[in-house]
Amino acid sequence: METTLQPELQGHFETAQARIAAATSAEELRAVDRDYLDKGGVVAGLLAAIPTLPPEQRRGAGQGANQLKTAVLGAIDVRKAELEADAIQAARSGKGFDPTLPGTPMRRGSLHPVTRVTRELEDIFSSMGYGILDGPEVEIDAFNFERLNIPSDHPARDMHDTFWCKVDGAERDSDMGLLLRTHTSCVQVRAMEKLKPPFRVVVPGRVFRQESVDASHEHTFHQMEGLVVGEGLTVGHLIGTMKTFLREVFQKEIEVRLRPGYFPFVEPGFELDARCPFCETVGAGCKVCKQTSWVELCPCGMVHPSVLKLSGIDPEKYTGFAFGLGLSRLVMLRYEIDDIRHLMGGDTRFLSQF
Ligand code: PHE
């Protein structure tokens, strides 16, 4: 640095500069700053001595002290910039990296509860010899209804409040027969098209219904369909399958009962209830079964002969059973979630609990 320091101040500056040049940390630079520029420092001492000087020297001494101050400050700034540049360089080259320091914590994601339960059920059914199938969420009327024994004038259609897809040129949305599937049963038809009996499959997936949404109704929810077709299958196989499945889920023997239920694609059709698996632990006042000791598990039944026939399977030779597990309901039971809207709500305060 170019200085016009008075000769007697030059010594001070050189000492300061030697310390500044030798400094390897911001801390050392702060120490020089303190010794020269703070109260009680060298510059302050020079200023304090001014009144004792003969008047004609005072002005020059004041200027000199200020020049020394500016020179020291400037030298500190230059060295500070050098040290910062060195630190950046070292960080880039990996030098000066301390592997023992704790790292920046990473936020961890987690699986959606529906995904968890789906995977768990897939594992159980795979271990029972089932294949896992997928189907499109935008489905044709034929697979969602017609081929399941629900023709266009069938009253059962009213139960499925269907979202019809708008298709250009159609007078009404339903005319082109494109819809958001109202259940996973349409994949039964796809399975029968594709696979030769005997076969057993489960189909997890999203389904859609035009519902007024509340704590127990959602327009988008999840089901897991099961379909088994083979020779000599009976209601006994259906019950045995559901009991095996429940034993795997709850790790204990669970009693089941069948009530009659009507679905056009099964005959006979049932509602299958399971003995409430929570009562034992919760005792009286169980909220899950509302103290009835039974929980509705799934609609099911023997595949209707017409449904087999419509898919080119000989109902004289083959029989089958089907069930429709309410996946969303199972997830709610499993994690004690009391409002179905949480499942598809996307609220991270809910999701981060899993
Ligand atoms: N698909 C039917 C529904 O969603 C349930 C069902 C599936 C019934 C399989 C019988 C057999 O209402």
Structural summary, described in words:
There is one protein chain. It contains 13 helices and nine strands. The protein has 354 residues and is of the alpha+beta class. β6 and β7 form a beta hairpin. α1 runs parallel beside α4, α2 runs antiparallel to α4 and α5 crosses α11. The longest helix is centred in the first third of the chain and has 39 residues. 29% of the residues are buried. The mean pLDDT is 90. The structure holds phenylalanine.
Record the SSE blueprint.
Blueprint (H helix, E strand, L loop, with lengths): L6 H16 L3 H12 L4 H8 L5 H39 L19 H15 L3 E2 L5 E3 H4 L33 E3 L5 H9 L4 E10 L11 E11 L4 H16 L5 E5 L5 E10 L3 H4 L11 E10 L1 H6 L8 E8 H9 L5 H5 L2 H4 L3
Parallel strand pairs: 1-4
Antiparallel strand pairs: 2-3, 4-5, 5-9, 6-7, 7-8, 8-9
Helix pairs in contact: 1-4, 2-4, 3-4, 5-11
Number of helices: 13
Output the CATH topology of the largest domain: BirA Bifunctional Protein, domain 2
How many E strands?
9
Bound molecules: phenylalanine
* Rg over CA atoms: 40 Å
Indicate the CATH class of the largest domain.
Alpha Beta
Compact description:
The chain is of the alpha+beta class and 354 residues long.
